[in-house]
Amino acid sequence: MKKITLFAAFLVAFAFQGNAQTTMTLVSPTGDGGFETADTFEGNGWTLLNHTYGSRKWQIGTGQAGFSGTRGAFIGSSATTVGTTAGSRTVHIYRPVTIPAGATNVQVKFKYKQEVVVIDPATGPNDYVYLSLMTEAPTNGTAAIRFSDKFPSTAAAYPTYTQITAPVPESAIVAGTTQYLVVTFRSTNLNDPATIGWGAIDDIEMTYEAALGTEEFNINKIAAYPNPVKDKLTITAAENINSVSIFNLFGQKLLNQEINATEAAIDMSALATGTYIVNVQSDKNTKTIKIVK
Protein backbone atom coordinates (compact mmCIF):
# COMPACT_ATOMS: atom_id res chain seq x y z
CA MET A 1 0.00 0.00 0.00
CA LYS A 2 2.82 2.34 0.89
CA LYS A 3 4.55 1.66 -2.42
CA ILE A 4 1.34 2.39 -4.36
CA THR A 5 0.86 5.64 -2.49
CA LEU A 6 4.42 6.76 -3.19
CA PHE A 7 4.07 5.84 -6.86
CA ALA A 8 0.81 7.79 -7.11
CA ALA A 9 2.48 10.79 -5.51
CA PHE A 10 5.30 10.51 -8.04
CA LEU A 11 2.79 10.49 -10.92
CA VAL A 12 1.07 13.59 -9.54
CA ALA A 13 4.38 15.40 -9.17
CA PHE A 14 5.43 14.38 -12.68
CA ALA A 15 2.13 15.56 -14.14
CA PHE A 16 2.44 18.90 -12.32
CA GLN A 17 5.98 19.36 -13.61
CA GLY A 18 4.86 18.58 -17.17
CA ASN A 19 2.16 21.25 -16.97
CA ALA A 20 4.20 23.85 -15.09
CA GLN A 21 4.48 27.32 -16.60
CA THR A 22 7.54 29.49 -16.90
CA THR A 23 7.66 33.20 -17.63
CA MET A 24 9.63 34.18 -20.73
CA THR A 25 10.78 37.75 -21.27
CA LEU A 26 10.69 39.44 -24.68
CA VAL A 27 11.52 42.98 -23.48
CA SER A 28 13.45 43.49 -20.25
CA PRO A 29 12.62 46.42 -17.94
CA THR A 30 16.23 46.63 -16.76
CA GLY A 31 17.68 46.69 -20.27
CA ASP A 32 16.12 47.87 -23.53
CA GLY A 33 12.71 48.30 -21.93
CA GLY A 34 14.20 50.63 -19.32
CA PHE A 35 16.32 52.46 -21.92
CA GLU A 36 19.44 51.46 -19.99
CA THR A 37 21.41 49.83 -22.83
CA ALA A 38 22.31 53.13 -24.53
CA ASP A 39 21.44 56.83 -24.49
CA THR A 40 19.49 56.68 -27.77
CA PHE A 41 16.28 54.90 -28.72
CA GLU A 42 18.10 53.08 -31.53
CA GLY A 43 20.77 51.83 -29.14
CA ASN A 44 18.02 50.25 -27.05
CA GLY A 45 16.41 48.54 -30.04
CA TRP A 46 13.57 51.06 -30.48
CA THR A 47 12.76 52.96 -33.65
CA LEU A 48 11.66 56.57 -33.23
CA LEU A 49 8.87 58.20 -35.27
CA ASN A 50 8.50 61.82 -34.19
CA HIS A 51 7.05 63.05 -37.49
CA THR A 52 8.41 66.57 -38.23
CA TYR A 53 7.77 68.01 -34.79
CA GLY A 54 10.54 70.17 -33.37
CA SER A 55 9.40 69.76 -29.75
CA ARG A 56 6.75 68.03 -27.62
CA LYS A 57 7.92 64.68 -28.94
CA TRP A 58 9.61 61.50 -27.67
CA GLN A 59 12.92 62.13 -25.96
CA ILE A 60 15.28 59.83 -24.07
CA GLY A 61 17.10 61.29 -21.09
CA THR A 62 16.50 62.91 -17.72
CA GLY A 63 13.80 65.51 -18.43
CA GLN A 64 11.13 63.79 -16.27
CA ALA A 65 12.19 63.11 -12.66
CA GLY A 66 11.47 59.78 -10.99
CA PHE A 67 12.68 57.32 -13.65
CA SER A 68 14.58 54.15 -12.78
CA GLY A 69 18.27 53.81 -13.55
CA THR A 70 20.03 56.50 -15.56
CA ARG A 71 17.32 57.62 -18.00
CA GLY A 72 13.75 57.27 -19.21
CA ALA A 73 11.59 58.13 -22.23
CA PHE A 74 9.31 61.16 -22.14
CA ILE A 75 7.51 63.79 -24.19
CA GLY A 76 9.59 66.97 -24.23
CA SER A 77 11.71 69.43 -26.13
CA SER A 78 15.18 67.96 -25.42
CA ALA A 79 16.88 65.14 -23.52
CA THR A 80 16.85 67.26 -20.37
CA THR A 81 13.80 69.51 -20.77
CA VAL A 82 10.04 68.99 -21.01
CA GLY A 83 9.36 72.48 -22.33
CA THR A 84 6.08 74.39 -22.68
CA THR A 85 5.11 73.84 -26.32
CA ALA A 86 1.41 73.19 -26.97
CA GLY A 87 -0.03 71.44 -30.00
CA SER A 88 -1.55 68.15 -31.13
CA ARG A 89 0.82 65.22 -31.60
CA THR A 90 0.93 61.57 -32.65
CA VAL A 91 4.40 60.14 -32.04
CA HIS A 92 5.61 56.54 -31.77
CA ILE A 93 8.45 54.38 -30.56
CA TYR A 94 8.41 50.72 -31.62
CA ARG A 95 10.50 47.54 -31.67
CA PRO A 96 10.26 44.05 -33.24
CA VAL A 97 9.06 41.15 -31.08
CA THR A 98 8.22 37.52 -31.85
CA ILE A 99 5.66 35.64 -29.77
CA PRO A 100 5.96 31.85 -30.26
CA ALA A 101 3.06 29.48 -30.83
CA GLY A 102 1.52 28.22 -27.61
CA ALA A 103 2.36 31.37 -25.63
CA THR A 104 -0.27 32.37 -23.06
CA ASN A 105 -0.81 35.31 -20.73
CA VAL A 106 1.06 37.70 -23.01
CA GLN A 107 1.26 41.09 -21.34
CA VAL A 108 3.12 44.37 -21.27
CA LYS A 109 3.98 46.11 -18.02
CA PHE A 110 5.38 49.62 -17.78
CA LYS A 111 5.59 52.64 -15.52
CA TYR A 112 3.85 55.78 -16.70
CA LYS A 113 3.84 59.37 -15.46
CA GLN A 114 1.55 62.19 -16.56
CA GLU A 115 0.86 64.88 -14.00
CA VAL A 116 -1.98 66.66 -15.83
CA VAL A 117 -5.01 65.21 -17.59
CA VAL A 118 -7.93 67.07 -19.17
CA ILE A 119 -11.01 65.06 -20.16
CA ASP A 120 -13.12 66.05 -23.15
CA PRO A 121 -16.70 64.87 -22.48
CA ALA A 122 -17.06 63.70 -26.07
CA THR A 123 -13.68 62.08 -26.81
CA GLY A 124 -12.03 61.36 -23.46
CA PRO A 125 -8.50 62.42 -22.44
CA ASN A 126 -6.75 65.05 -24.55
CA ASP A 127 -3.28 63.62 -23.81
CA TYR A 128 -2.55 59.91 -23.37
CA VAL A 129 -0.34 56.96 -24.24
CA TYR A 130 -1.41 53.57 -25.63
CA LEU A 131 0.07 50.30 -26.93
CA SER A 132 -0.26 48.50 -30.26
CA LEU A 133 0.99 45.18 -31.66
CA MET A 134 1.26 45.40 -35.43
CA THR A 135 2.39 43.17 -38.30
CA GLU A 136 3.78 46.23 -40.09
CA ALA A 137 5.68 49.20 -38.70
CA PRO A 138 3.52 52.22 -37.78
CA THR A 139 3.22 55.24 -40.05
CA ASN A 140 4.89 58.48 -39.05
CA GLY A 141 2.33 60.88 -37.59
CA THR A 142 -0.62 58.47 -37.97
CA ALA A 143 -2.49 56.81 -35.11
CA ALA A 144 -1.90 53.07 -34.74
CA ILE A 145 -4.63 50.52 -33.93
CA ARG A 146 -4.35 50.01 -30.19
CA PHE A 147 -4.90 46.85 -28.14
CA SER A 148 -4.60 48.58 -24.77
CA ASP A 149 -6.63 51.21 -22.97
CA LYS A 150 -5.67 54.85 -23.11
CA PHE A 151 -3.54 55.93 -20.15
CA PRO A 152 -4.83 57.95 -18.45
CA SER A 153 -8.40 57.03 -19.36
CA THR A 154 -10.11 59.01 -16.60
CA ALA A 155 -9.55 62.30 -14.82
CA ALA A 156 -7.10 60.58 -12.47
CA ALA A 157 -3.58 61.65 -13.44
CA TYR A 158 -0.32 59.84 -12.75
CA PRO A 159 1.69 62.33 -10.66
CA THR A 160 4.53 59.80 -10.25
CA TYR A 161 5.66 56.79 -12.28
CA THR A 162 2.83 54.26 -11.79
CA GLN A 163 2.93 50.56 -12.66
CA ILE A 164 0.46 49.61 -15.41
CA THR A 165 -0.28 46.14 -16.80
CA ALA A 166 -1.75 45.80 -20.30
CA PRO A 167 -2.78 42.24 -21.33
CA VAL A 168 -2.27 41.49 -25.02
CA PRO A 169 -5.41 39.92 -26.56
CA GLU A 170 -5.01 36.76 -28.63
CA SER A 171 -6.59 38.57 -31.57
CA ALA A 172 -3.56 40.88 -31.77
CA ILE A 173 -0.97 38.07 -31.86
CA VAL A 174 0.37 36.40 -34.99
CA ALA A 175 2.39 33.56 -33.45
CA GLY A 176 5.87 32.87 -34.78
CA THR A 177 5.90 36.08 -36.85
CA THR A 178 7.89 39.22 -36.20
CA GLN A 179 5.49 41.95 -35.09
CA TYR A 180 6.03 45.45 -33.73
CA LEU A 181 5.32 46.55 -30.18
CA VAL A 182 4.34 50.21 -30.52
CA VAL A 183 4.14 52.86 -27.80
CA THR A 184 2.18 55.88 -29.00
CA PHE A 185 1.71 59.25 -27.34
CA ARG A 186 -1.24 61.12 -28.76
CA SER A 187 -2.53 64.59 -28.01
CA THR A 188 -5.42 66.62 -29.34
CA ASN A 189 -4.71 69.34 -26.79
CA LEU A 190 -4.29 72.85 -28.22
CA ASN A 191 -4.87 74.58 -24.90
CA ASP A 192 -2.68 76.56 -22.57
CA PRO A 193 0.50 74.64 -21.55
CA ALA A 194 -0.75 74.58 -17.96
CA THR A 195 -3.50 72.12 -18.99
CA ILE A 196 -1.32 69.87 -21.16
CA GLY A 197 -0.17 66.41 -20.13
CA TRP A 198 3.47 65.47 -20.61
CA GLY A 199 3.79 61.70 -20.79
CA ALA A 200 6.81 59.74 -19.54
CA ILE A 201 7.40 55.98 -19.69
CA ASP A 202 9.99 53.65 -18.20
CA ASP A 203 10.66 50.00 -17.29
CA ILE A 204 8.74 48.45 -20.20
CA GLU A 205 8.48 44.68 -19.84
CA MET A 206 6.87 42.23 -22.26
CA THR A 207 6.40 38.63 -21.11
CA TYR A 208 4.46 35.47 -21.85
CA GLU A 209 3.84 32.14 -20.16
CA ALA A 210 5.09 28.92 -21.73
CA ALA A 211 4.78 25.28 -20.73
CA LEU A 212 7.96 24.16 -18.99
CA GLY A 213 8.73 21.33 -21.36
CA THR A 214 11.31 20.28 -23.92
CA GLU A 215 10.40 23.09 -26.29
CA GLU A 216 11.21 25.83 -23.78
CA PHE A 217 14.45 24.18 -22.78
CA ASN A 218 15.37 24.05 -26.46
CA ILE A 219 14.63 27.73 -27.05
CA ASN A 220 17.15 28.57 -24.34
CA LYS A 221 19.68 26.44 -26.19
CA ILE A 222 19.48 28.59 -29.33
CA ALA A 223 22.72 30.58 -29.24
CA ALA A 224 24.40 33.14 -31.51
CA TYR A 225 28.10 34.06 -31.31
CA PRO A 226 30.36 35.98 -31.34
CA ASN A 227 28.52 39.08 -30.17
CA PRO A 228 29.74 41.64 -31.20
CA VAL A 229 30.32 40.01 -34.55
CA LYS A 230 32.76 41.02 -37.28
CA ASP A 231 31.91 38.94 -40.37
CA LYS A 232 30.49 35.49 -39.60
CA LEU A 233 27.75 34.85 -37.05
CA THR A 234 27.43 31.27 -35.85
CA ILE A 235 24.01 30.06 -34.66
CA THR A 236 23.47 26.74 -32.90
CA ALA A 237 20.35 25.03 -31.58
CA ALA A 238 19.23 21.81 -29.93
CA GLU A 239 16.74 21.23 -32.75
CA ASN A 240 16.60 21.86 -36.47
CA ILE A 241 16.90 25.53 -37.49
CA ASN A 242 14.50 26.32 -40.31
CA SER A 243 15.52 29.88 -41.13
CA VAL A 244 17.38 32.95 -39.91
CA SER A 245 16.26 36.52 -40.65
CA ILE A 246 18.11 39.74 -39.85
CA PHE A 247 16.35 43.09 -39.34
CA ASN A 248 17.71 46.57 -38.77
CA LEU A 249 16.27 48.75 -36.01
CA PHE A 250 13.81 50.27 -38.48
CA GLY A 251 12.18 46.85 -38.87
CA GLN A 252 13.50 46.33 -42.42
CA LYS A 253 14.42 42.74 -43.29
CA LEU A 254 18.00 42.73 -44.61
CA LEU A 255 18.64 39.01 -44.87
CA ASN A 256 16.67 35.77 -44.86
CA GLN A 257 18.47 32.44 -45.07
CA GLU A 258 17.01 28.93 -45.12
CA ILE A 259 19.08 26.61 -42.91
CA ASN A 260 17.61 23.11 -42.27
CA ALA A 261 20.39 22.15 -39.84
CA THR A 262 21.23 22.51 -36.15
CA GLU A 263 24.09 24.91 -36.84
CA ALA A 264 24.42 27.80 -39.28
CA ALA A 265 27.08 30.30 -40.34
CA ILE A 266 25.56 33.64 -41.34
CA ASP A 267 27.67 36.01 -43.43
CA MET A 268 27.22 39.54 -42.05
CA SER A 269 30.27 41.04 -43.73
CA ALA A 270 28.15 43.14 -46.12
CA LEU A 271 26.22 44.80 -43.30
CA ALA A 272 27.30 48.15 -41.90
CA THR A 273 28.44 48.62 -38.33
CA GLY A 274 25.41 48.84 -36.04
CA THR A 275 22.81 46.91 -34.05
CA TYR A 276 20.65 44.23 -35.64
CA ILE A 277 17.77 41.96 -34.62
CA VAL A 278 18.31 38.29 -35.53
CA ASN A 279 15.19 36.11 -35.71
CA VAL A 280 15.88 32.36 -35.48
CA GLN A 281 13.05 29.97 -36.35
CA SER A 282 13.46 26.31 -35.42
CA ASP A 283 11.00 23.44 -35.75
CA LYS A 284 9.08 24.37 -32.60
CA ASN A 285 10.47 27.68 -31.40
CA THR A 286 11.29 31.22 -32.42
CA LYS A 287 13.97 33.29 -30.71
CA THR A 288 14.93 36.93 -31.23
CA ILE A 289 18.51 37.98 -30.45
CA LYS A 290 20.06 41.44 -30.57
CA ILE A 291 23.47 41.43 -32.30
CA VAL A 292 26.03 44.22 -32.48
CA LYS A 293 28.40 44.50 -35.44
Automatic annotation (TrEMBL):
Residues 225-291 form the Secretion system C-terminal sorting domain. InterPro entries: Secre_tail (IPR026444). It comes from the Bacteria. Residues 1-20 form the signal peptide. Keywords: Signal. The keyword Signal applies. Pfam families: Por_Secre_tail. This is Putative secreted protein (Por secretion system target). It comes from Flavobacterium endophyticum.
